[in-house]
């Protein structure tokens, strides 16, 4: 503990005079950048305030301007127009004063990976002018809070994603700042680590009265904030209590099921309805947001050609209001236009367990010296199935993927992919699979079309065949206008599109997606999954890892790993059922995931 908890009648925020209740004041701020020959307006006439002693979420799609705003607030950039006051200081003229008071955690945590945990803390203490006499007690508090006490001598580069996240936060808190700026601190880390970070953040707010501005691409995190600021395309969309924004959608959200068609086909039909603003798969049903608040939708009018349809009202979520504000309208013409039809593919999906076994893993183990990254794992994936592989950071998911793609040999056990034993014919299997890595594996100094040509050549597509596939990719993924753009300058959403296009150039039978939406905004994630669902409907087998529990709901089956071991395999509904209890009658996928991981860790600690 940093200090005794504050009572409701005695908090730093409550003692502020009205003029001092704002930790951050943004007034008419605009900021533009020149990238090559292009002028990019990152922020346009943005105004809002951040109150003291609360958590304010900065929410917006990729390239909305969140990071630019964070850097302006930290005094690292100057606005082209408007003004920013941080803790009463003018960011344009008093940046050093601001930087001496605030805590700032940039994306990717701002760590020096070739330094140890202790050396990172020492460096930040030096930079922030923390007296050496105060450091031991401060370090003890921070290390205990972050669960890093036993890891002070470990290099930061050797920490898991969740541990890096907490070390980055600890470094930002060395001076115990009154204002903490966190730029997407939970991107790329597992749900358990996300929960742990939020516990730390709220401890700071409740015990220290710390003001927090936190940007995030996870819309469920917005509901944990006291207030949210919504940005889109550099402009302010809304600012207020997330509960109020959420309730504005009351009466417009429903769950739709049908025993006559698959959930992916049901989503396709619903998304084509002009009465529906949004449709996405959620477990065994499709969640819809109606365009207008009207009478409850009727199966006959909404889905006239589909039988056995059930429609039930469900409470709205913050994500629904976010989508409504952006006026996102699914275009059926772009939703299922993936012309991905190699001769070996069926044009429909087949239920798991009744079709050809495309991936067979038996007693698979991978050791690195004395360390076992994967331990005696077995599972089967059928043709046309979307199979999700979940786990905490360091669980062994990426190692598993590399073995399945023939990029890493197993230490023991067997695995067959597309009917090929990877021990003896890895190259033959790789010709039939597509792989999209966490960082997209693009060549940042090449243009979009040059990346497409490189990958088409790598897959043996040359001449007219290669030109045809490149033209397909440019049109299919709406990349024609960016064909000559350097891929390193693209937004994350466009990098994701390009990476998926590259993975599909040779029309693979199996597609491996290793955290393909990490750091990508919610709108790009939705577009991505519409494409993946269309591929699965055409018979392509999909295997995916993700830290987004909502995305896990898209899968036909899931496997959850921890410390290289398989904890459970089943449908999303079956796994959530394992977490049901008297205290938690309707658990989410995140509840189930966290419960399984914490139970496994507890068993390991007791052993």
Describe the protein's topology.
Elements: H1 12-15, E1 22-35, E2 38-51, E3 55-59, H2 66-73, E4 81-86, E5 89-90, H3 95-99, E6 103-105, H4 117-127, H5 135-146, H6 161-172, E7 179-183, H7 191-208, E8 211-216, H8 219-222, E9 227-232, E10 235-240, H9 242-247, E11 253-258, H10 263-271, E12 276-282, E13 285-290, H11 299-302, E14 309-313, H12 318-326, H13 332-335, E15 357-368, E16 371-382, E17 386-391, H14 397-404, E18 412-417, E19 420-421, H15 426-430, E20 433-436, H16 448-458, H17 463-476, H18 492-503, E21 510-514, H19 522-537, E22 541-545, H20 549-552, E23 557-562, E24 565-570, H21 572-578, H22 589-606
Parallel strand pairs: 3-8, 3-9, 6-7, 7-8, 17-22, 17-23, 20-21, 21-22
Antiparallel strand pairs: 1-2, 1-4, 4-5, 9-10, 11-13, 11-14, 12-13, 15-16, 15-18, 18-19, 23-24
């Amino acid at each position: 503990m940093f200090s005794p908890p504050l009572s409701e009648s005695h908090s730093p925020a409550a003692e502020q005079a009205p003029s001092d209740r704002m930790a951050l004041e943004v007034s008419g701020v605009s900021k533009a950048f020149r990238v090559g020959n292009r002028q990019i307006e990152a922020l346009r006439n943005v105004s809002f305030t951040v109150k003291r002693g609360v958590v304010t979420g900065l929410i917006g799609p990729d390239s909305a301007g969140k990071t630019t705003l964070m850097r302006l607030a930290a005094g690292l950039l100057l606005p082209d127009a408007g003004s920013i006051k941080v803790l009463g200081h003018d960011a344009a003229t008093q940046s050093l004063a601001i930087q001496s008071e605030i805590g700032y955690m940039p994306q990717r945590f701002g760590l020096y990976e070739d330094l140890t945990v202790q050396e990172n803390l020492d460096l930040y203490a030096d930079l922030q002018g923390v007296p050496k006499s105060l450091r031991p007690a401060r370090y003890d508090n921070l290390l205990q809070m972050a669960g890093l006490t036993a890891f002070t001598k470990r290099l930061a580069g050797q920490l898991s994603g969740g541990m890096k996240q907490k070390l980055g936060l600890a470094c930002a808190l060395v001076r115990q700042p009154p204002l903490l700026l966190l730029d997407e601190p939970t991107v790329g880390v597992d749900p358990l680590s996300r929960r742990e970070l939020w516990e730390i953040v709220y401890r700071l707010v409740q015990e220290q009265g710390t003001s927090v501005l936190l940007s995030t691409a996870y819309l469920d995190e917005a509901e944990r904030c006291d207030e949210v600021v919504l940005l889109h395309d550099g402009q302010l969309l809304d600012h207020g209590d997330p509960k109020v924004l959420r309730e504005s959608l009351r009466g417009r959200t429903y769950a739709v099921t049908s025993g006559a068609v698959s959930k992916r086909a049901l989503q396709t039909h619903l998304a084509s309805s002009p009465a529906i603003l949004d449709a996405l798969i959620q477990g065994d049903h499709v969640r819809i947001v109606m365009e207008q608040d009207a009478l409850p939708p009727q199966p006959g009018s909404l889905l006239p050609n589909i039988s056995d349809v059930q429609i039930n009202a469900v409470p709205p979520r913050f994500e629904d209001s976010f989508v409504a504000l952006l006026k996102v309208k699914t275009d059926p013409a772009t939703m299922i236009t993936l012309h991905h039809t190699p001769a070996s593919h069926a044009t429909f999906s087949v239920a798991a367990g009744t079709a050809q076994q495309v991936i067979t893993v038996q007693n698979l183990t991978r050791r690195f010296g004395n360390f076992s990254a994967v331990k005696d794992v077995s599972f089967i994936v059928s043709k046309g199935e979307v199979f999700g592989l979940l786990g905490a950071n360091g669980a062994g998911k990426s190692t598993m993927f590399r073995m399945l793609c023939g990029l890493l040999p197993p230490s023991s056990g067997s695995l067959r992919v597309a009917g090929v034993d990877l021990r003896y014919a890895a190259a033959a299997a790789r010709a039939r699979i597509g792989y999209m890595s966490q960082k997209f594996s693009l060549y940042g100094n090449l243009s979009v079309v040059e990346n497409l040509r490189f990958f088409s050549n790598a897959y043996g597509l040359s001449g007219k065949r290669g030109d045809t596939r490149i033209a397909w990719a440019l049109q299919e993924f709406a990349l024609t206008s960016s064909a000559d753009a350097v891929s390193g300058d693209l937004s994350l959403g466009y990098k994701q599109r390009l990476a998926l296009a590259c993975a599909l150039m040779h029309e693979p039978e199996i597609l491996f997606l290793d955290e393909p939406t990490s750091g990508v905004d919610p709108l790009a994630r939705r577009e991505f999954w519409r494409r993946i669902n269309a591929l699965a409907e055409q018979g392509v087998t999909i295997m995916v890892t993700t830290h987004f529990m909502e995305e896990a709901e898209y899968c036909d089956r899931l496997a959850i790993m921890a410390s290289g071991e398989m904890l459970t395999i089943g449908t999303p509904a079956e796994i959530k059922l394992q977490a049901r209890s008297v205290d938690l009658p309707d658990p989410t996928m995140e509840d189930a995931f966290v419960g399984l991981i914490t139970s496994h860790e507890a068993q390991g600690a007791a052993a």
